[in-house]
Design a protein that fits this description.
Helix content is about 40%, strand content about 15%. It is of the alpha/beta class.
Length: about 350
């Protein structure tokens, strides 16, 4: 599978006290060729026992594993003990650079896992771990527990990825209650104020992941096929609910999410907020209205999520005072439940 570098962290140059995140636009070539396709992203968190080419260490590589646009984000950003120094000078036009203000962390691995959880996870259908690469189940559970967001009940989240943990079929290796093990890890190592209950720990990870499944299987293509089939299931749920991104909007929203991640006081990623960053064209808005109207007519799914996301782009900032925006907003309201969104 041919991969190209997508994300990379660098040590700050003199005069700056925090690192930089670079986003390479090369992987978006397939997006540009298929703007109306709906990408599926599978995020694979590599372990220390995997010997990868030197050029892939300390980065996130993105490659296409299946048509149309099933992508594998191969993550080794957490491997280097130290960040590489950034090369000052001209920045190529196919690279976006974000200064991670106020993000000085003791370990570069902590910053990498923060990026996985806050930036990659909300855009992924599946997050996968290979137990034989990580040595055992314990470091995988620790990594997952480290990116749990403890938010108030009722907080709105974007569709959550499914987590798959592939454990090798060693002699005597038995199935484990992964839900209980993850909750225990949260309580033991991330319950800093000692106020969480077991039930609260389970509730916390369920806000971040659609499911967490441990699978004892042989190595090889079986793992890849399981990831692809699980991604297809999650993608179907997104399509039914009307919240899947097409390739054009995936690229736009991901760039906005990188800017959001770079803020000093980072909150849980909320795409409803970052949808305000770029102003859509009128053709894009018409497309969104059609999608939302279709979702609202279906009985299944969650059209209210799509309605809130798209309506925010319609009414905010540039189109609030324009007659075209007003007409499109009224069109949207005619196809939605007034109780879901006040027109």
């Amino acid at each position: 599978m041919a991969c190209s570098q997508w994300l990379h962290l660098f040590e700050a140059p003199p005069g700056f006290d925090s690192p930089f995140l670079r986003e390479n636009h090369g992987p978006y070539q397939d997006f540009d060729r298929n703007p109306r396709a709906y990408p599926e992203v599978i995020t694979l968190i590599r372990g220390w026992n995997k010997f990868l080419p030197a050029k892939t260490e300390g980065s996130v590589q993105l490659g296409k594993i299946r048509f149309p646009l099933v992508l594998l984000a191969d993550c080794t950003l957490h491997h280097p003990p130290q960040l590489q120094p950034i090369n000052p000078g001209f920045l190529p036009p196919n690279v976006s650079q974000h200064h991670l203000t106020g993000r000085r962390l003791a370990k570069s691995q902590d910053l990498a896992y923060s990026l996985y959880s806050r930036l990659l996870s909300p855009f992924s259908n599946v997050v996968a771990f290979y137990g034989d690469e990580h040595g055992s189940l314990a470091p995988i559970l620790h990594a997952l527990a480290s990116w749990i967001s403890f938010t108030p009940d009722g907080a709105w989240f974007w569709p959550r990825p499914a987590v798959l943990i592939f454990l090798p079929s060693w002699p005597g290796n038995k199935p484990v209650d992964i839900h209980e093990e993850l909750a225990i890890e949260i309580l033991q190592n991330f319950n800093h104020e000692k106020i969480l209950s077991f039930r609260a720990a389970v509730s916390a990870w369920k806000k971040c992941f659609a499911s967490v499944t441990a699978i004892i299987e042989p190595t090889g293509d079986i793992r890849l096929q399981r990831m692809i089939s699980e991604s297809a299931r999650i993608q179907q749920e997104k399509m039914t609910s009307g919240v899947a991104f097409n390739a054009y909007h995936f690229k736009r929203f991901f760039r906005a999410a990188c800017a959001h991640f770079a803020k000093a006081e980072i909150a849980p990623l909320n795409l409803l907020d970052i949808s305000r960053v770029d102003n859509p064209s009128l053709d894009e808005i018409r497309f969104h209205v059609e999608q939302v109207a279709g979702a609202a007519k279906r009985k299944e799914g969650r059209p209210d999520i799509a309605i809130k996301l798209i309506a925010s782009a319609l009414v905010l900032d540039s189109y609030g005072q324009m007659k075209h925006g007003r007409h499109l907003l009224l069109s949207l309201c005619q196809h939605t439940n007034p109780k879901s969104f006040p027109c």
